Amino acid sequence: MKVEDIKKVTVIGSGTMGNGIAQVFASCGFDVTVVDLKQEFLDRAFSNITKSLERIVKKGALSEDDKNSTLKKIKTSTDLDSAKESQLVIEAVTENLEVKLDIFRRLEAACPPEVVFASNTSSLPITQLAASTKRADKFIGMHFMNPVPMMKLIELIRGIATSDETYALISDLSRKLGKTPVEVNDFPGFIANRILMPMINEAIYAHMEGVGTVEAIDEVMRLGMNHPMGPLQLADFIGLDVCLSILEVLHSGLGDPKYRPCPLLRKMVQAGYLGRKSGRGFYTYP
To answer: How many domains is the chain partitioned into structurally?
Structure first.
């Protein structure tokens, strides 16, 4: 298969990452179907995509006609079997191994053998996900960064059986999307989160131990390290539940105590303080 052969793409999951991925593909001319459990989730995702495109129009970077044509490229469905009409299926659901494995088993039964599978997982093993299918050679990690329409990086993670042909196809496709693909091998956390999450975790420890306030820690990293936002604000944007899940994968997968999640992070997730999406994390959001 070549990039030119990919006409239709299915995105499984309509959350922040899923709707961002759908928007990028549709903006580049692909027909996209977004699949989720409930129509209300899909309606919310379509509304978010519309608002995102409208912001780009207001900046003068997109015409009203292009916005409308992009939205026409996006369909929604609550039926996983609708993925069988696509050449590429990208999974972007919650960071839960069993949920993802179940989805790929069902996709394997529904989709023709030539369909390529990708996972947007930020930390879970691509090799294990691929092993739940009969097309491990056509399986790859495609880790987009948030917010997807703005961020240029895609980590492309090769499982142990990912073929050179599949890697080349998805690498070329990533460039067609205006992104920069970076090849990564299949280790817990890959590159981005293996480096990022310990920094966020240490910032939470520093706050818990009274080294500095939330604002002080973030300001030091912004002004001293020239980061666009501090680690605690970034954790809120990622989702504290997602940060916790990734750290748990790193801790169990690598067996190193330096990845042990901070007790304060665990407590905040238990309280439902998940960051921006819940209205409260290290900061409050109206």
So the answer is: 2
Is 193 annotated as catalytic?
Answer: yes
Query: Confidence band (pLDDT; 50, 70, 90) for 24?
Result: very high
Do 97 and 199 share a domain, yes or no?
A: no
CA–chain centroid gap for 99, Å, is: 15
CATH number of domain containing 205: 1.10.1040.10
Domain finish residue from 131, 153, 185: 185
Q: Could you read off the pLDDT of 31-76 as tens digits, one per residue?
A: 999 999 999 999 999 999 999 999 999 999 999 999 999 999 999 9
According to the 3-state scheme, what is the secondary structure of 46-77? HHHHHHHHHHHHHCCCCCHHHHHHHHHCEEEE
Marked catalytic residue, from 171, 193, 201, 245? 193
Its pTM stands at: 0.90
Q: Which of 143, 174, 245, 251 is catalytic?
A: 143
Residue 1, pLDDT > 90, answer no
Residue 286 lies in a domain: no
122 is catalytic: yes
The residue among 185, 211, 232 that closes a domain is 185
Query: Mean per-residue pLDDT for 273-286?
Result: 95
Catalytic residue among 27, 122, 132, 171: 122
Say if residue 170 is in the same domain as residue 55. Answer: yes
Exactly one of 123, 155, 171, 207 is catalytic; which is it?
A: 155
Task: Indicate whether 244 and 110 sit together in one domain.
Answer: no
> Catalytic residue at 207?
no
Annotated active-site residue 120? The verdict is: no
Enclosing domain of residue 264:
194-278
The predicted pLDDT at position 12 comes to: 98
